[in-house]
Amino acid sequence: MLLRDSLPIDSILAELDAALHRGHAVLQAPTGSGKSTRVPLALLDADWLAGQQIVMLQPRRAAARLTAARLAAQLGEPLGEQVGYQIRFERRVSARTRIEVVTEGILTRRIQHDPLLSGIGLVIFDEFHERSLVADLGLALVLDSARSVRPDLRILVMSATLEAAPVAQLLGDAPILRAEGRSFPVEIRYAERPPDSDPVRAMVAAVRQAFAEETGDLLAFLPGAREIDRAREQLVAQLAPDSAILPLHGSLSAAEQDRALRPAGSGQRRVILATDLAETSLTLDGIRVVLDSGLTRKPRFDLGSGLTRLVTEAIPHASADQRAGRAGRVAPGVCWRLWTREHEHGRAEQRIPEIRTADLAPLVLELAVWGVKDPLALSWLDPPPAPAWTQAQELLRTLGALDARDALTARGRALAELPLHPRLGVMLLDATAAERQMAADLCALLTERDPLLAESGQARAVDLGLRLDALHTWRTRNGQLSGVDRRRLEAIDRIARQVQQLAARATAAPPSSAPDSAVPRTAGALLALAYPDRIAQRRSGADARYLLAAGMGAELPRDDALAVHAYLVVAALDARGRDGRIQAALPISLSEVRTVFSERLEQRRDVFWDAERAAVACRLSTRFAALVLDAQPVALRPEDNASAYLLTQIRADFDTALNWSAAARQLQARVALLRQQDAAGVWPDWSTDQLRETLADWLGPLIATHTRLAEVRQLDLHAVLIDRLSWAQRQQLDQLAPHCFTTPAGNTRPIDYVSGTTPILAVPLQELFGLHDTPRLCHGRIPLLLHLLSPARRPIQVTQDLAGFWARGYAEVRKELRGRYPKHQWPDDPTQAQALVGGIRRRRVSDSTASTS
């Protein structure tokens, strides 16, 4: 086929034709080389193609439409003739179509219906460096088909920045062809200061400066549609009236995207605010300046929570280079990177393949349709991670798409026919005819951009019911619509109608949760079909904190109106933090939960620890997964083993749960002292750690019939422990480590084994008169630590050497205390004096009489 306007890719077209004649191939060519718009046309008349169709995959809908339009324009034909396209809910093809540009999901549907890919001779994977999950799946399926049943089918993988060698190896050591690009020099400028924490504020300032200093149209990359809307609102008010501020992202309608891609009118300069949609495939004429925030927003699946959240992250070097290249398509240009040279370091070289970070439920379902239970049965650049694969299988079993052996069910086959996540597919298929429109509306709302506009400084309301109401009002044209984006409502309405038509044609298994009556379910009850694991129950005593059926915590934004509801169904949840942040939800009543999931409710008799009563209790509960829907107290049974719960609580709070009286602690310490002196191992280990560890052995039998901690605290722990010693051990204990000491005055004083490392005897000094040396324990091996007390019971000396005290310290003490306590006896030689109780010698009556006669 004769093509005009020479492009850099033309130099290798003959070599590419020859390579594909032999087998598969990999083409690496820079952006602007013409690979997307030249290669399919150049290969259309190849002998090896034998008149069959070429299918070219584009990762984005806008790129698919635009690429098809430019291919058709080169042939001088309208779309739908030799060149057509098909994207989700949009198709422009005919019986004459030889080149069909499709998004990746369309190929998956086609090969599932026709594994032979009848009539197709070449499948081109364009912009494969984006490594979307669906592209990896499509390549695995097409490669499997080519190897098993279609040896004549050819595969061509094209990219500007992809590492080609691994792809070539995957394709059976396919040849790698490289082409030069056609571009002009691009000057790279970096910011002088670290990037602003607000990318919109930084971008608006940069656009204003570049608009004043540079010439030509500007292309500004921002992470998402939300930032684009904010930046556009500010720039419309700040730039010259002859400027056209145009958004470009995947959520826009085809007409809005085409407007951004068309050259500006006479005398106008365009400022295109784009997501990474504008990185590849799309040619934007007239762009001389690129301003790059260096950010993108990608979905990341959190394996721990089972949730997908959008993450704003730094782009890799390959993306930064492609963005910069947009400024050099038609003339020398400049790229302003809104980060410093220092921030250049640490960026990844390539994008992270989505298969590593995505929810794999759609992929697992597609492979089940293909007949694959083990992903390693296919060839992958990056195989699906095993944990995410297992979690996806569990979800699909819950949704009824897979059976217990992970084989595809009739319901699963019907779900695979729908261009929706399996969760939403279940809701759509299980809806009755009367409920189908609402189910389709919910599907559209959850897959398209939010139509509610956030007020400045405020978070959007969580309630999906507000969106449903706005959609209904928009359709009926009644009332005033404020705070909503009508264009988004229009897109949602279009998608909802298409989804409803698909549901009407779907051949599904009988609904698993059809209502018993003819009354349609509420929106919340329908949404629960898609998200049974995200039914949320408000926590006791918390206004905005909930527990999900899956066991996770979740909370509403502050002051959100949905907090009045005891039960919610959560459709969108940010998994960051201790409790996920609820972003989209609907209320559901307890009776609806019981009705919709009657077959999943579980009656359970639960024995548990009642912390408020400090007792073991039992209740009969109705549960839905982790949620207790209701509970009634019931009596405990002997087989409930209440003592085990008591022992758990005692073990957790060992020092206060038991009645550790002073006598019990003394006994514990006395035995510990003897154990230290015990070379033969006669004495037990009654340390706190050991007693806690062996709690079931020594305390368990005594509390077998108890249910309350108060009953356990009534046990005499001293008696419990002493009973564990033999008669001989008790005799030895009293002999070697007696609990008290009888002073020479005949008074009994307790020995303190607990307060220190050495047993302590606190005794009035005068009760030890006549005692020559320190009393000792354990056959004289351990001297007591004497706390010698004054008549006022205040310590005057601490010693383990009583003889030394009598000899060296007593005289000084006697001198001081004799003046303070003159009525007390203070002998010169305490070792020869009589010990006194109270320190005063009492006169006998006979002595008193004699003295007065």
From TrEMBL:
Key words, A-Z: ATP-binding, Helicase, Hydrolase, Nucleotide-binding
Matches recorded under SMART domains: DEXDc, HA2, HELICc
CDD domains: DEXHc_HrpB, SF2_C_RHA
Ranges where the Helicase C-terminal domain occurs: 206-371
Protein name, UniProt field: ATP-dependent helicase HrpB
Pfam families documented for this protein: DEAD, Helicase_C, HrpB_C, WHD_HA2
Keyword ATP-binding included in the entry's annotation: yes
GO MF, any single term: hydrolase activity
Signal peptide location: none
Helicase ATP-binding domain ranges (all copies): 16-180
